[in-house]
Amino acid sequence: MSFLCAARAALVGQSVLRRILPLVAVVILAGLSLSCGNSSHGTPTGPNHNAYVTLPQKGSVLLLHINGATGAITLGAQTPQVQDTTPTGLALLPSKKFLYAVNSFANTISIFNVASDGTLTLTGTPTQAGGSSPNAAVIDPSGKYLLVTNNLTDSVSVFSIDSGSGALSPVGSPVPANANPAEILITPSGKFVYVTNPGIGMVTAFTFSNGALTEVKPGSPFFSGAGAFGLAVDGSERFLYVANRSASNNPASTIGNISGFNIDPNTGALTTQILGSPFTATNGSGPSAITVDPSGRFVYATTQGSSFSIWCFSITSTNGQLVAVTNSPFSLAAGGLFALIDPSGNYFYIGSQSGNGIAGYTYNPSTGAPTVISGSPFSTGTAPGKMVLSE
Fold first, then answer.
1. What is the spatial distance between Cα 61 and Cα 43, in angstroms, rounded to a whole number?
2. How far is residue 272 CA from its own chain's centroid?
3. What does the pLDDT look like over 126-173, one tens digit per residue?
4. 3-state DSSP helix/strand/coil percent for the chain, to nearest 5?
5. Structural contact between residues 355 and 383, judged by C-beta atoms closer than 8 angstroms
6. Would you say 172 and 160 are in contact if contact means Cβ atoms under 8 Å apart?
7. Torsional class of 227: left (φ above 0), alpha (ψ -120 to 50), beta (otherwise)
8. Which residues, other chains included, contact 353 with Cβ-Cβ below 8 Å and sequence gap of 6+?
């Protein structure tokens, strides 16, 4: 089964150099400033930081070091391997003090203390997930709650987080989430939660307040398409996009598509599908991971392999409609496990089902076209599960 993550959006600013210089020098500097463009994509700048990835086959979590200037990944320490756990979902507390790994086979959640250098130490005994085959996890924007999908018991568990110890306490009983919930997303405001149900091609919608999940009625679950899996929302939470990896298209030149929905700002209901939805590519098949870039300009959906594997669309700001960018889909190494962009918008990482693990790219802020980071793909030894960035 593929496993995904969503990335939160943030905009990258640019600084203007001001100096008291002769007029000619000022003109020259201004010209240079204009020619440089967005520094985060021409010559990315930013601090080095860490990331984490689960390794389901090894029963461990791997620390990754990301070079802020190049986006290149080097491997850090790996937690001790624990058999029969199969960690998949991953969530990092906003304070970066604690990391949570969801153990799908053991039906538990491991809690790790995050040291100043990024290394992880297991704290206490793993917490029971509250359901069978827990899969994906997300922390609400306040950092007070952890939500986990339970794939085989058709539910979502909610836990309150102790800010001092990281300990988890169940909030009521797991909430029904229709058949085999897989991926989970919480909107930037923390008001709404969406879960995909691949087996029935639906999206289950909830409101979320003070740890309480309430399914949106009437309406939920909402039909998306066969194999509905990955989820992404724009920063204004007006539009929700869903990757339907096995949906049929007309004409049937490709398999799989992207559904786009308008979100009711008061209820969280998926009121209508966006004009032109579902959206598909001219080539390629099976998109399962999806993300929106921090600027809110582009949607990326990814598939396994390297042929027509990265689908890129520009977002029409007025109505959320998707338009394929020039040369999309791109035949570059990709994967269907996760697709995430760092909050500064510098780097784009894709999880692959192969041992090479993670493909890394920069992307053009005007055209959306991806460019391979030197050294990519980066090996994780075995296929990863989920990845989170610490930045």
1. 31
2. 24
3. 999 999 999 999 999 999 999 999 999 999 999 999 999 999 999 999
4. 5, 40, 55
5. yes
6. no
7. left
8. 2, 304, 335, 336, 337, 383
